[in-house]
Amino acid sequence: MAVAQSSIAAFLRALTLGRPTPEVPDFDSGINASSAWTGSLPLPQDAILRRSQAIAEQPIVNINSLSDDEHEAEEREDIQDIEQLPGQAARALYAFEGKPEFRELTDVRAGDELEVLKEEVGEGWSLVKLMVADLAGGERRSEVGLLPRSYYTFTSDFAQVAELERSQRRREPSASSITPRGSPLRHTDPLPVIPQNTGEWLPSFRRSLLGGRSLNRFSNFVTSGAEAFVLQGNAEDVSPSSSHHERLVTTASVRDDPPNGINPVGGETERHYVEAGPAWKPKVPPFRILVHSPSKRNSGLSGAYTMYSVTSLFDAPSNEAGEDNYEGVVPPRPASPVRITVHRRFSHFVVLHTALIRRLPGIALPPLPEKQYAGRFNADFVEARRGDLERYLSRVVRHPIARYAEVLTFFLGCESDLEWKKQYPAYLALPPAGPLFFANVFHPAFNLDTDEASEVVDRFVSHTRAVGRGVQGLRGIFNDVRQASIEMSRGQRLLAYSLLSLITSKPLASTSASSVEEEEEEEEGDRKVKGHMNEDRAWCWRENCEECLKLTKAMQKTTEILQGVADLYDDHARRTQMVTHEALKGVAHPAPLYAGVVETHKSTLSRYNEATLRGAENEEMAARCETVLNTTMAEIETYHTQKLEDFQALTKGYLDDEIALYEEILVRLKSARRTFDPPQYAHLAQAPRQPSMYERELEQPRLNPAPLTQPCPHVFDSAPMRPVSVAIQEGVGMLLGSPTRASVFGKFWS
User: Fold this and answer.
1) How buried is residue 359: exposed, middle or buried, by Cβ count under 10 Å (0-12/13-18/19+)?
2) Do 593 and 542 sit in the same domain of this protein?
3) Which of 207, 339, 701, 728 lies deepest, with the highest CB count within 10 Å?
4) Which residues of the chain fall below pLDDT 50?
5) From the Swiss-Prot or TrEMBL record, what is one GO molecular function term (predicted)?
6) What's the structural domain count of the chain?
7) Residue that terminates a domain, selected from 402, 431, 447
8) Hey, what's the torsion of the CAs at 325, 327, 332, 337, to 10 degrees?
């Protein structure tokens, strides 16, 4: 026990504090911070002319040495160029409070006057100038930013229509024309020529107004921090000198005494390595997870809840000394795995999942099962939830990066309830890693072919979509397979009942006699007189017929074994095949699971192409793009590895289950067959036949099994079952006391 506890403590300490590793010279994390990323983006024509004149008058300097003040002045010039664009009058329809970090207008009120500089800049946004009254100076100032297209309407068309209506009400005669004097159509001055926007100003607009960011701030490329890392590097120091392109020392920021036991930044658990492939380099060996023994608990604050036991199984270290210590004797049994068991409720899993997606934004984590508000203590639901949580944790711990996350170590290793309550709020409050995650990714230099990366992602998308469609079809077919097992169970049971009815003359309630009709209400004695059974309950009209007694007993034994075979089929469909049916959920939706990775990959490739454009090269941005692409390619390789494991385990598991079923059926059928062979057959004549336990079921046979329990829906299922809505609807029906009245409300819950 002391050895096991020391091993557990060593493992947890290794995960929490990290293990010192030697420097790896062929790994780098791209550029952590840079202020020169904007130097290679194209500028508007006027800005290019002004900048060319300025450069001609000044000595040649390195563009990477531009200061922040020079960038700010340059940005102001570009914004002024944008403000000079001709605008179209508009008026705000609704109030809008945007986010300044995304260059959105921050204080738009309904009715404000606007000038639309660019109606469509992408993804439903417009570039708009807002006229704001300056209360202090009594003047009007303008503010340029982004506004959703649906938040305003153009007013110039309305002004022309109103002017035409006013002019038509007071027309003046004219010899040459009947056009109203005040109409715009009488103007002889040509309208100003508005130059067409060809889109060439958009890169400069993004550079100056948006800082090069994407217009869709809800995309995974933005929310994961990949875009911020590609454009600006990491905002925090990850090395003693983060302003240069340096390889980081792996033990530089490992803290021996982290505050409150948590490492929000730095530490070996925050650093991730990509090796050739690209593929993630694992730091911790894989281990197994069991979620078991659910129990109902009660709390005065939160009410009743279900507590699950979570056991981590770590393989014991092998004996490196070899067989010399055993002196030729039989080697001892392999050491049992080291176990750590903790108790967690569903809200604790929510804490774990929330912290993981914040600290590991660049990887594809499995979705957490949905929360259930009604029917939470139903036995079938508790068992289904237990299986879902076990599959969720198993998928998390087999990911080579998430496996050593500090919050996962805390979740699986904190056995003290007091320590858990003290620490988990701090993990829940950890800020998103953002660009820091990608800044702590180390990879070999020049290990990525961008052409291959572009081709791979297209094939990966097609493959995952095809896998999703195929598995969804397989899930439906597997439900038919389970139903076929239920039908097989019903057939075996019906056969058993029929044989038993034959040798006992008791009619089966679900069948009608096809031969000569007999009086069904006769007493048993009357049947014996008629000759169906003798005094020994043998299937014979002769008394003391040993041969018929042996045959009757052997056939009765066969009917009982067939009933057992029917039970095997029923249990196989409801329990064994249900496990496989549930497991298919985990591989049913690879496309939406990896959609964020694919989006980040494609967006980074686009940035990489911009950074390597001839005449506008930006090596630092290109290096950071390579870091993000190494991350996404490693995730794609992770899916490839996990797909092999998943479908191999699913197929082998299904075959093993079917083999076990038919082996058990074969054993029972052989047992029934041996009953007809000596010496067992000879011993059957030693005593009268006793009635079978299934004879009482002939009047009410079990031929209508309960409906099959279906797997709980996956989060990504397009048309999932809604047990919460059904439970609420049933509750309304109970309160109203009428299922008819409850059905009126059913449409609102579905």
Assistant:
1) buried
2) yes
3) 207
4) 1-7, 12, 14-75, 161, 164-165, 167-203, 207, 237-260, 265, 320-324, 326, 512-525, 527-529, 720-750
5) phosphatidylinositol binding
6) 3
7) 447
8) 10
CATH number for the domain harbouring residue 593: 1.20.1270.60
185 close to 179: Cβ distance less than 8 angstroms: yes
pLDDT at 139: 61
For residue 502, being part of any structural domain is answered with: yes
Q: Pull the structure tokens for residue 15.
A: 């995960």
On whether residue 312 sits in a domain, the answer given is: yes
Residues 621 and 601 in one domain: yes
Alpha helices in 675-707 (DSSP H): 680-683
Same domain, 622 and 494: yes
Residues 654 and 728 in one domain: no
Rounded CA gap, 128 and 126, in Å?
A: 6
> Do residues 252 and 292 share a domain?
yes
* Residue pair 416/296 in contact by the 8 Å Cβ criterion: no
Rounded to 5 degrees, what angle do the CA atoms 593, 594, 596 make? 105
Burial zone of 118 (CB within 10 Å; 0-12 exposed, 13-18 middle, 19+ buried): buried
Distance CA 438, CA 231 (A): 12
Task: For residues 284 and 302, give the distance between their C-alpha atoms in angstroms, rounded to a whole number.
Answer: 37
Let me know if residue 650 belongs to a domain.
Answer: yes
145-173 burial code (b ≥16 CB/10 A, e <16)? bbbbeebbeeeeeeeeeeeeeebeeeeee
Q: 741: domain range?
A: 720-750
Residues 6+ apart with CB under 8 A from 213: 102, 103, 206, 222, 227, 228, 231
Domain C-terminal end among 403, 431, 447: 447
In this structure, are strands 303-314 and 272-275 parallel, antiparallel, or unpaired? unpaired
Can you tell me whether residue 485 is helix, strand or coil?
Answer: helix
The secondary structure of 401-462 as a DSSP string is: TGGG-HHHHHHHH---HHHHHHHHHHHHTPPP-THHHHHTEEEETT---HHHHHHHHHHHHH
**Domain of residue 403, CATH code:** 3.30.1520.10
Model confidence pTM above 0.85: no
